[in-house]
Task: structure prediction
Amino acid sequence: MLSSMKRNLLLATLFAAFLGASAQTATPAATLEGDWAGTLAVGDAVQHVTIHLHKNAEAWTCSVDNPERGASGIPCRLTSAVNPVVWQVPIVHSTWTGTWDGDKLTGVYSEGSDTPLVLTRVVATP
Result:
């Protein structure tokens, strides 16, 4: 049987190992809901894009911001919330199709031509 001191040392070591492992492992968000931001290369210019995805009891709502175009809150339609994820922006006849992997959306934005667009989850600051 372990002495009290050895047992406490063993428990302290196991606890420290657990804390170290959990601090290094970030758990990706389990939902697509939230705000996602990325940059879109359009010729020589870069445009910042933010998409807001929210789910209520009945359906998904979706809007897009693009400050370089003076656009904020442009309605979009999420047509698939599972891989492949797809949303459309009817007013500009565009579509984004890609994959969701935790805190990253990787895909292609199509508005006349195909352009890569990677978005990462926006984390609110306190």
In short: The radius of gyration is 21 Å.
